[in-house]
Amino acid sequence: MKVKDRTYLAEAPKEGEVTFLSWIHGLRVTKDGLTIKLRDVSGVKEFKAVRGLEKLKLSKESLILIRGFKKGDELTVKEVKVLVRAPPKLPLDPERPEPDKVEDFVKYSYLTIRSPKYVKVFKAQQYVLKYIRDFLYERGFTELLSPLISPCSDPGLRGAKKLRTSFYGRTYELMSSVIMFKQTAVASLEKIFFVARNVREEPKENLSTGRHLCEFTQVDVEWAFADMWDAIKLGEELITYVIERFVDERKDLLKEFDRDLEVPKRPFKIISYDDAVRELAKVGIETPKGKELTFEGEAKLPELYGGPVWITMYPKETRGFYYIEDGERRGYNRDFNLLLPEGQGEVIDGGEREYRYEEIVRRIKGMGEDPATYSWFLELAKVGIPPSSGFGLGVERFTKYILGLKYIWEAAPFPKVPGIVPSP
Ligand code: AMP
Ligand code: MG
Questions:
Q1: 258 falls in which pLDDT band (50, 70, 90)?
Q2: Which end of the chain is more exposed for a tag (fewer CB within 10 A), N or C?
Q3: Total Cβ atoms within 10 A of residue 167
């Protein structure tokens, strides 16, 4: 439906004829008459003492076409058409979305997305993606479209389960991460990235971290012939570039979120996993032997070091098979995580890759898995994979950090979260 001479709320004249095509965001009857909040793509505006609407039985979230006369915040309605009438009671009110009530927030994400706060979040997220792409394009990385299914996907999932589907009678896995495709692509393109959607059935208890989704997005970067230190440098340049552009160009958005975002100073602190474990023990946070740091520990470390921290050289057995073992420190990978402050924890995970056929097979067996599961990747490894380094940056986690959101489900338009079904 096309409306001629439509007036967007944000562009309405102080005084004059208007034609609004808007959603009823709020409704209140006061002693002076009706107060109505209208919402369209340009924002929300409140009108007092609206004359001409009193008799219509309007409900919130109805879509109306109003022709009338506007004077300041008073609206005299000449003609009104209800194009979509919403029921009198809604399961979730877009005027007051409550991210603390995660079950409703997720179940009714089809209404949450109408809330002005989340419209701003998704507009901000598009800039996160744009600035990331600007940076990587400028550095000569080629963006590839990511696959969704494959006979095998990333097994290094920290307790999460992979999801499977049937494909011409074969079992295929939904992409838990595109790691193997990254190693495949750098043979020809050398510097690549995907903006890849990943699916993982996270343990139910990960809901309480506020930073685990079951469907999330990684900017997954890979760079042939680079070592882990090159990848770390690239990662922190990427993070600071995006934050810097937000601070310079999106002050208005940051202000709306009451966010005092600082550009972190480079170089970021780098410590080894072993040192991290020792430092955490000093403040009473124990790490189970040979295991990943706890979520609590990951949140604490940036606080201890006063900014973003890289953790390097994780014990081999904590990780997937695709990290290369350090030549000197046996039993440790040449890998890294970036932890951000304010309780954010891990946003980047990466490292230098194992590319030698025999070693990959050994690592897969070491994880107790059948190498046959990874047959196409092993066939490729026999042909040859170039050495490379790379990382994955969680887009929703990074958005959450940039805007200072409380929960990660606020940074996904249609969130799927640990343990909560059904959802859109
Ligand atoms: P991983 O390979 O599991 O370390 O994931 C790589 C990156 O993706 C992490 O550093 C996070 O930024 C992000 N990520 C991983 N798991 C999740 C999840 N369940 N929800 C949201 N982001 C995630
Ligand atoms: Mg990780």
A1: very high
A2: N
A3: 12
Is the CB of 349 inside a 6 Å radius of any atom of ligand 1?
yes
Query: For residue 218, how many other CB atoms are within 10 A of its CB?
Result: 25
Q: How far apart are CA 235 and CA 223, in angstroms?
A: 12
Q: Is 164 helix (H, G, I), strand (E, B) or coil?
A: strand
Ligand 1, atom 4, lies closest to the CA of 349
Spatial contact of 382 and 336, defined as CB atoms under 8 Å apart: no
Q: What is the rounded distance in angstroms from the CA atom of residue 237 to the CA atom of residue 90?
A: 45
The predicted pLDDT at position 104 comes to 98
Domain boundaries, the chain: 9-90, 107-411
Q: Does domain 9-90 have CATH number 2.40.50.140?
A: yes
Pocket lining: 397 vs ligand 1, CB cutoff 6 Å: yes
Mean pLDDT of the chain: 96
Q: What is the DSSP string of 198-236?
A: EE-B--GGGGGGS---SEEEEEEEEEET--HHHHHHHHH
Strand partners, 38: 24, 45
Size of the chain, expressed as the number of residues it contains: 424
Q: CA-to-CA distance for 228 and 150, rounded, in angstroms?
A: 27
Beta-strand relationship, 74-84 and 43-51: parallel
DSSP string, 29-75: EETTEEEEEEEETTEEEEEEEEET-TTS---TT-EEEEEEEEETTEE
Strands (E), 169-301: 170-174, 191-199, 215-224, 269-272
**Class of the CATH-defined domain 107-411:** alpha beta
Q: Given a cut of 90, is residue 259 above it in pLDDT?
A: yes
Q: Whose CA is nearest to atom 8 of ligand 1?
A: 394
How many angstroms does the Cα of residue 381 sit away from the middle of ligand 1?
Answer: 26
Whether 9-90 and 107-411 share one fold: the answer is no
Residue 1 pLDDT > 80? no
Q: Rounded distance, CA 107 to CA 414, Å?
A: 9
Number of helices (H) and strands (E), helices first, in the chain? 11, 16
Structure tokens at 67: 């022709």
